Amino acid sequence: MGEKEKVALVLGGGAAKGYAHLGVIKVLEREFGFKPDIIVGCSMGSIVGGFYAYGYSTEEMEHLALQMDLGRTLALLTPRPGLTGFIDGNHPLAFFQQMLGSDTKIQDLKTPYAAVAYDLLNLREIIFTAGNLAYAIRASMSIPGVFPPLDFGDSILVDGGVIDPVPVSAAQLLGADKIIAVNVLPRYGIKASTDDMDRYLSKLKNQDFYDKKRNFFKALSNFRMDIKRKMAINAAVIGMMSIGVMESGIIDLNFMETHPDLIIDVDVPIKLHEFHKAKIAIEAGESAATQKVKEISRVLNLV
Predict the structure, then answer these.
(1) Whole-model pTM?
(2) Does the annotation count 159 as an active-site position?
(3) What would the pLDDT profile of 259-270 be if each residue is shown by its tens digit?
(4) HSE of 250 in the Cβ direction (CA atoms, 13 Å)?
(5) Tell me, what's the pLDDT at 208?
(6) Angle at the Cα of 234 from the Cα atoms of 276 and 95, rounded to 5 degrees
(7) Which of these is catalytic: 88, 159, 164, 265?
(8) Given 3-state DSSP classes, what are the helix, strand and coil percentages for the chain, each rounded to the nearest 5?
């Protein structure tokens, strides 16, 4: 008999939408008793994947996610306006070190794992398969303009989603025979249209239009913050949305090159910054995976 095929689970970026990965994993375990041979993650996918590879159960991860109410979200995503990012990256790093250990090495995890980042100075995708786990995840989630990058002098590491939002190619490099890719961002390609700038300028004089739109900038409503904090939060939201749009535009292009065996697209009805709505995202992931049960069976050679 030949060797067992290695099946990789690839979890893409998507900020708060990435909680949907937990729902997908729940279905894979419940319906198929599936445990991936390789886990690859980018950005939020690197966080979920890292906790999973470390040994956290889906129940434990879901419990942590559901604890992220508005107050805890703000405590973890503390604004710290600066030249390289609006959110203090030390708080998430400290959380990862607390939950995963400050000295845990990727090569010592229960399941082979990789976190994907991008080196801005050397213009290359970095696939972390060894070394400090907490720092690898912190690098992978460094959304440009939102979190400060990890600066090591001759390398500046940012979110891998800038080049590979759902890093199927990384799983291929790690020797995966079959790949299940989970994408939580919309796939609408790159669209363009001509327009007249004066049409936008005219809206500035329309108070009704302004009143309808101003709530967009209340990213975390009903929470009292000083003006600097509000500015930082709103800048971070704009940054997340901008990167999300960019990633959505290149996901299809990457899939056309990498051809994963199965793509589970999850329509997650929350915004990228709504980390306090984990339950909705998890349920969306469960729904999307349930609709793909037949395709999953085929990939796992169960039919």
Answers:
(1) 0.83
(2) yes
(3) 999 999 999 999
(4) 15
(5) 58
(6) 45
(7) 159
(8) 50, 15, 35
